[in-house]
Write a structure and sequence with these properties.
By secondary structure, the protein is an alpha+beta fold. The protein folds into two domains: about 120 residues, no CATH class; about 45 residues, no CATH class. Helix content is about 30%, strand content about 35%. The protein is built from six helices and nine strands, in the order ββββαααββααββαβ. The strands form two sheets. Strands 1, 2, 3, 4, 5 and 6 form a six-stranded antiparallel β-sheet that branches. Strands 8-7-9 form a three-stranded antiparallel β-sheet. Strand 3 and strand 4 form a beta hairpin.
């Protein structure tokens, strides 16, 4: 039996279709990313410590900007890795279930919604607009949503001071 401080949860990065996802680094180097399958859907997941990612521990860590940036970037890296060869439905940062069985239940109860959403997104890309704000040294980020114009990013020049450029954020 695990002691309370050893308890783990199942962190869900995204939902996809296809063959099981090969292991890669996730939020914790000792707990690789893997997939949980249910019929034709799979959830890309990794185990996380509930001491760190449970409600009490997470509340304190969300106040730590360095920790938050590191974890959000790891979450995004996993999603981008999965997107290299399949369409995904990204889950919100810190979507955590107690057991793999609960994740399978989610895949089963929302199967048609997930499949319909994946079908609508298949073949599309997400783009992001980056704008340098003159005189401030900061940038403004604007999501442009999904687009099928796959050649646009390569044809635009890099942003200059005060200018804007589009670049692909995630690719399928």
């Amino acid at each position: 039996m695990k002691r309370r401080h050893d308890a783990t949860g199942i962190y869900v990065y995204c939902i996809a279709e296809g063959e099981p996802f090969a292991a890669t680094a996730g939020l914790h180097p000792c707990r690789p990313v893997h997939s949980i399958a249910h019929e034709d859907l799979l959830a890309v997941v990794s185990e996380v410590s509930l001491q760190e990612f449970g409600a009490e521990g997470l509340h304190a860590r969300l106040e730590d900007d360095c920790w938050l940036e590191q974890e959000v970037r790891a979450h995004e890296r996993v999603i981008e890795k999965v997107m290299e060869d399949r369409t995904v439905l990204p889950m919100k940062f810190c979507t955590i279930f107690r057991t793999e069985g609960r994740v399978r239940d989610l895949l089963g109860t929302r199967r048609e919604k997930f499949r319909n959403a994946l079908a609508r997104l298949r073949g599309l890309e997400e783009w992001e607009l980056t704008e340098d704000v003159p005189g401030t040294g900061s940038r403004s980020w604007h999501s442009s949503g999904q687009t099928t114009d796959k050649g646009l990013g390569e044809s635009l020049p890099h942003a200059e001071e005060g200018g804007a450029a589009r670049r692909p954020r995630c690719r399928r």
